[in-house]
Here is the input.
Amino acid sequence: MLNATGIFSVMEPAGGGPTEYINHHLHFWQVKVGDSAFMTLNVDTLIFTFVLSALFFLSFWLAARKVTSGVPGKFQAFVETIVEFVDGLVKETFHGRSKLIAPLSITIFCLVFLMNFMDMVPVDFLPWAWASGHEIAGHDPAHAYLRVVPTADLNTTFGLSLSVFLLIQVFGIGHKGVGGFTKEIFTAPFGPWLAPVNMLLRVIEEGVRPLSLSLRLFGNMYAGELIFILIALMTLNSSLAHFATWPMGLMQLVAGFAWTTFHILIIVLQAFIFMMLTIVYLSMSAESH
Here is the structure.
């Protein structure tokens, strides 16, 4: 069976049906904290987020350690290109003064990109490897769940957006002071006579920001992951649908290549949008109304 990226798939769902296949791929590796069902950890999301964060940190740390003033190497040139590109965007967009904005923007762009890029890993490869290890350890592979795209988890995107939301408030207070920040909540944009209306509009404005940031990124990455799974289904039990496996496999290869090519653009674009909106929101919080 071919998978969504056109290589042979070795993973079969329990029961062999499309519903079981989709449910298995969309189920997180979860661990409950204590006896309460309220607190549940998506362990796979935490692991991949930590690994990708460490990869980003170590890559840029090594690039900084090996930096030279002469002709740069390929990796140094690549890192410098990213830094200069983001730094230029920050200078054009953020009108205040802060040594934090540029490093924060680079971190957001690179980390979100790396998490998005996990969608390029063949859809069955890592889940199959995890299920195989589960079986070797004597456990039921049908219950070996693994999702590899952290940004396809709403907890990740909402956590990122909440961090940006808190930074917005910190920047606002830092640039305007507590008094100026509080005064703006009740006086902008209609003046002190409409303080309740101003406050209501401010609450709506501030609340929409983390929601829009998190849902936009989550929606795009979840949809991309789901389309890869649906493409992989093209050869799942294709013989039972009276189609030859190889012709369907060829169609799957073409569809997988086309969607992969398009999805690369989405991956980069979503990381860029998240970074740019963060810069814009922080710039707005540092400016007077």
User: Anything to note?
Assistant: The chain has a mean pLDDT of 85. The chain has eight helices and two strands.
